[in-house]
Amino acid sequence: MALGADRIELKSGREIGILHRANGMVLAILEELKKLALPGVSTGELDEYAERAIRDRGGEPAFKGYRGFPASLCTSINDEVVHGIPSKNRLLEEGDIVSLDLGVKLEGFYGDSAITVAVGHVSPDKVRLMEVTREALIAGIRQMKPGAPMGLMSAEIQRHAEKHGYAVVRDFVGHGIGRRPHEEPAVPNYVDGDPHSGLKLKNGMVLAVEPMVNAGSRDVRIARDGWTALTRDGEPSAHFEYSVAVTDDGPRILGLDAPPEGS
Fold first, then answer.
1. Which of 111, 112, 128, 206: CA 20 to 30 A from 255?
2. Is 71 a domain residue?
3. 39 assigned to some structural domain
């Protein structure tokens, strides 16, 4: 899909306030899911909990039925990168890492965030992969100021991941978000060429920034279910995502009342 700067929708202060509430709901539910992601729990149970929690708070699941996706939550385990489909038959195991990607619709606007969490005790290598992926996200967000090229954010995410020996997935990128779950522009986590060229950020842009970082090769493949993306080499992958508003006061991570640790 071709994405043009002339089609990017800038959000008003009121609209950003609604997006803040929508994303606050997402982040709160993700924190609850993090505590429930224990050995022996099925990804289907996590999905059921997520949908119930969304509806109990007055929202609607953003992912369920979107382009045919069958669930409210994406659960991607170990070498699964994104878009894993929950199942009552898929049990979490000690030592797994699982990406939990959740979206909601609230008052006509969408929230979207993701975290990767440890299931029980995990290896130091997996812990470091998760840490670096989240650090890369925060490092990129710091570059999100009006007038700054978006490429600076993308380059910083890539630089931080590659500095630690990891690879940034290129097959999937972030996106604008607002009245639709996916809006323009595309938000890559890498840059080819000059990071100072290309789209300039503007006050009122809202972007879902979501690095997917692999321990091995950046290459991915799609499973037979048509949704789940996996690393080609079987190495683990981590995924973190925030929806971020570009403001004259700097980047605002929607749903957080304070900057995250390390920002």
1. 128
2. yes
3. yes
